[in-house]
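Please review this one.

:::
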Amino acid sequence: MTISVDGAHAPASTGNWVRVDATVVAGKTKATPVLAASVWPNFPGDYAFTGLKNATASLTFRGSGVDWTALVGPNNGRAKVVIDGVVVNSKLDLWAPGYAYQTFAFNGLVDTVHTVVITCLGTKQTASSGTIVTLKALTVE
């Protein structure tokens, strides 16, 4: 599933935000993605972020892979990525000298139902000024 926002809105609307509060997988409603607003606040409609150690975001999906698009930058830290209970990256580093969106692909899965969990480790490399982990999009393949 891909949800694209074109920026348009009805004349009576004051914004163009789109939110997903649930998906239906194999006939069962799943309240995903799971983001606690107090832990993963939204940067004015663009992406969610956290610097809180052990804060997680998760998505249950059906497909053969998932791409995580994050904002990397000089104040970003490290995250752990787990798919179906298996650690696929124990210290994914989101630090970069400047801000940019970067997509991390986790492909080659059997086309079935999976769960991806992204955890903020609360750690960073020396060059980083913070431990921020961001979530722009999770795209299922």
